[in-house]
Amino acid sequence: MKSPKPQLKRLQPFFSSGCCLLPCGSHKNPLLKSWPSSPGLSLVELANFPGCKAVGLRTGPEDGQILSIDLDGQSAIDRLWKDSLDPFMSGTFIVGRSGDPWRLKLQFRLTPEQAAEISSFQTTIHTKPACNGAKAEAVEVLYSRRRQVIIGGRHPSGDSYIWFDGAGPEQLEAPDSKWWAFIKECHARAQQPPQKHRPTDRKRSNTRRANPCPVCGRHDGPGGSNLWCEYSSSGLLFCMPGTTFSAPAGLRIGYVVNGWALKKITQTQDGPVHVFGQHDPEKLKRQSDVE
């Protein structure tokens, strides 16, 4: 049995304080089937879990009151600057990427008083649309046990997730007054009823509602949504955009989320519609053998 490496050992305070650490694969996907309700793994279990390429940290009020702000691109960081918010002055744990200085994740642990002021939510502020093959950019705020963020290990691009001096996991803190005001503004925005989404002028027939959506978790129960994601008669899954529920930011064609492989992203006035097909590793293997 392997012992945790020094970097992994630095996450012990997360495990000890009731946070949920998850084993993730090469495409940032949690490797536990019931990961939204799993208690998570210990550091030793993570070090020995088959296929584990990265460590995920589940967000939400149930697991240590962890809230994450995911900054995906320079325009996302510029958006925070408009509110006089500097990620590197946040005083908390920051995760970066070795090959891209504009990809940052800020992790906060809310105080009991702060946690009492907001409910579970997630929201996305789109800051730059996809263009000429370049990915869309956004600020994503995550405080839901249906969402997890990668805090260590290998990125699908081959980059490594990195920790900064003075902003490692030991520095995990609650947001100060300026960051808390921004978070509460995002929470208030997420509570507003979304506009009904019409991805096309012609209503699709032979579809059925995905309730819940296996990608974003959209559902019609308490805390759910008036919108819905859909399965088509041909077996495709249309994951709709939204503020509370949306596909994880940064997905690329071929990425797999909970057994669904991304096939297409269609930009609409309400945001990107992600089209998935069921992932079939055996089919891919058969195709590779033929080639």
Task: Name the descriptors.
291 residues, alpha+beta, six-stranded antiparallel beta sheet, 7 helices, globular, disordered C terminus
Biggest pleated sheet = 6 strands, antiparallel
Enumerate how many helices there are, as a single number.
7
Runs with pLDDT <50, length 5+? 199-203, 286-291
Number of strands: 15
* Number of domains as seen in the coordinates: 2
Distance between the termini: 39 Å
Fraction of helical residues: 10-25%
* Physical arrangement of strands within the biggest beta sheet: 6-7-3-5-4-9
Q: Provide mean pLDDT, rounded.
A: 87
Classify the beta-strand content into a percent band: 25-35%
**Integer-rounded radius of gyration:** 19 Å
**Series of H and E elements:** HHEHEEHEEHEEEEHEEEEEEH
Structure description:
- This protein has 291 residues and is of the alpha+beta class.
- It has two domains: 6-191, no CATH class; 208-283, no CATH class.
- It is 18% helix and 29% strand.
- The chain is built from seven helices and 15 strands.
- It has helices spanning 6-9, 12-16, 43-48, 74-81, 112-115, 177-191, 281-290; strands at residues 21-24, 54-58, 66-72, 93-97, 100-109, 121-128, 137-143, 148-153, 161-163, 208-210, 229-231, 237-239, 256-257, 260-268, 271-278.
- The strands form three sheets. A six-stranded antiparallel beta sheet has the order 6-7-3-5-4-9.
- A hairpin with an 8-residue loop joins strand 6 and strand 7 (137-143).
- The longest helix has 15 residues, at 177-191.
- It is globular and about 55 Å long.
